From TrEMBL:
Keyword match Hydrolase: yes
Function in brief: Nucleoside triphosphate pyrophosphatase. May have a dual role in cell division arrest and in preventing the incorporation of modified nucleotides into cellular nucleic acids.
NCBIfam families xrefs: maf
Localization, UniProt: Cytoplasm
Protein name from the UniProt record: Nucleoside triphosphate pyrophosphatase
Alphabetical keyword list: Cytoplasm, Hydrolase, Nucleotide metabolism
Amino acid sequence: MPLRLVLASASPARRKLLQAAGIEPDVLVSGVDESQVVSERAEDLCLELARLKAEAVLGRLRTGADERTLVIGCDSVLAFDGEILGKPVDAADASRRWERMRGRSGVLHTGHCLIEVGDGRRAEAVASTVVHFAEIDDEEIAAYVATGEPLAVAGAFTIDGIGGVFLDGIEGDPSTVVGLSLPLLRRLLADLGLRIVDLWTKVAPGGQSVQPLV
């Protein structure tokens, strides 16, 4: 039976990550107001937001008798210096964050909630990765913020875009920092009795054929 994955996120980085892994998701934006959710623990916050996103999209989906549909919601936050940091509110906020973060480390937490549409079964978990920020100067901060990239992402940085050059290293799964942990997705699928290879499209990125496993 065909297996369909719906990504409850407007993030192009998450979609590209799945595509690079041979998965072509459908995309439905959840519309969840993230500012309404408050928690003192970064892990709890990102998981609750991931859950709300998946549930919001779940309510808009119907699955046919000849397919199985899954929806995944994700959310990322940065735990740094005792604070939980989502997206910066403006350029000045992004600049202030980088002035604090440079030369130091934080932990990027990404919550995942995977739900099967037909029977409502779900699997959820948080993936966490330590991020080491480079000791960048004021001019580099100003130039980076001026690109607009840090305004659209949790923690005001990316690993898969312009900001990747300002990271000295990470401890953990790189895809967690992008916003969706592929190893964790594999484990969540297994919790539901599914395999990630069942989500592979017939043609992978680059045009090479993906042969089904026997």
